[in-house]
Every structure is written in structure tokens, then in C-alpha cells.
Amino acid sequence: MKKRTTIVASFVALALPFVSSAALIIDSQGSGTLETDPFPGTFTPISATDLANSDQATFLSASDIDTGGRGDTTSRLFDGVAGVGVGFEAQFNTGSITINLDTSVNTLGYNISGINTYAAWNTGSGGRSDQEYTLTFIYMDDSFEEITNGTHYANTVAAADENGEVNVWTEVKISDDAGMIGTGVKSVKFDFLTGANAGGTATYTEFDIVGVAVPEPATLGLITACGGGILFIRRRFMI
Ligand SMILES: [Ca+2]
Ligand SMILES: [Ca+2]
Predict the structure, then answer these.
(1) How far is the CA of 206 from the centre of ligand 2 (A)?
(2) Domains parsed from the chain with CATH numbers
(3) Using one digit for the tens of pLDDT, what is the confidence trace for 168-181?
(4) Which one of 69, 103, 125, 147 is separated from 22 by 20 to 30 angstroms, measured CA to CA?
């Protein structure tokens, strides 16, 4: 009996690093009221090198763009900069957008570890920084999975003369305690629910998709071969 207990304990100890509880973490990182200091460095910074930044080889396109009647300003989601004011805003009155990653080279898709969304609005135009959306991953085999949906940041403090919402900017960081939200991803889709915002409009300023390409089998083989070579050398010299 004792031996069995020991074996089980050893198994658990060995298995622990690989245990995946796969619990999604939605971190409403913060918000602020100052137009002059949006997204301070104490929060996760806007990235200009994430998978969805438009000048990266990993970014393919944005498709199925539906801004709900607003003009198409969606290129501002992928330019690596964020700020407050109409020059930074990508506006949606509900609608959706699909962000496609380039799989011509990375044919197995991408392992996604983080989705960071940033919203900001000009105080002169009303409260539009609540973040409400459904996030869906589309995988290499064309299957899809809803990752999360609902209100991810809601202003709760009313302020006079600002359409009842006080925050100028909000920041939401989505991750998973298993490390990866999804593997083999080729596209990321957002469907917007902007009912709580002034005028039913949400003004986002950047969407960052954080992750790495899934290693190709040839790469894995090389790593295995290198590992085998090191083992051979160690054994050789130990003998
Ligand atoms: Ca970016
Ligand atoms: Ca931007």
C-alpha cells in the first residue's frame, strides 16, 4: 500500500508541470480618466511587434469587417500605437472583424498566449470605452471555438458631462493559466456588443495578438536530433 502511494505521488509530481487547468484569465487591467496619459507603463504596453501588427510578416489581413454603419477605420487596430482622439479610434456600432494570420510559411498556425485589447475615446464624443465582445478562435482545420463573450470592461463610475462614463481609456488582457489560450490558430474573430456605450459605439485603438508559430515537424526533428547528439557525446565521454 505504501509503495502504491509512493508511485502515485511520484506520478503526480512528474505530471504537475504538464497539468493544464486551462482556465481563462480576463484581466481588466485598468482604466483612466486622463486624455493626456492613456495606457501608462504600469499596464501591459501596446505592442508594435505582436502577431497582428500590420507590418509583421505574421499578419495577413483583416476580413469580414462590419463596423455597423461606421466608416472603416480598422487599420488603426494594427498600427502599434494607441492614444485618445479621433485619429486613433477604430469605431464599431456592433459588427465584427476577423484577423487572419499568415500561414503560408507557418503552416501549422500559431500558439496564442495573449489577446490584449485597448479602447479609448475622446471625452468630447461621449463614453465609448466599455469593452464588450465575443472572442472566437478559428483553427487550421477550419473548426472554431468561442473563447469568451460578454462585457470585459464596464465603466462603473458616472461622471458629469461625460455621458455618464468616466474613463477615457480601458485595457483588457486575456490569457490562460495553462500558458496558451489556443494552439494551431489561424484567425481571431471579434463580434462586438456595444450596447452599453454611448450611442452604441465602441472606439478601440489597438488589438494585440501575442503568440508564436507552431513549430514545424522538421524543426522538432532537428531539436530531437540535437538532443540525441548531446546525449551520445555525454555517454561517450562518461564511458
Ligand atoms: Ca499591435
Ligand atoms: Ca492603434
Answers:
(1) 4
(2) 24-214 (2.60.120.260)
(3) 788 899 999 999 99
(4) 103
129 Cα–ligand 2 center, Å? 14
Q: Which ligand is nearest to the CA of 47?
A: 1
As a whole number of angstroms, the distance between CA 117 and CA 211 comes to 15
Distance 108 CA to ligand 2 centre (A): 28
- How far, in Å, from the CA of 239 to the mean position of ligand 2? 60
Of the ranges 46-50, 124-128, 150-154, 232-236, the best mean pLDDT one: 46-50
Whole-number average pLDDT of the chain: 80
Whole-model pTM above 0.90? no
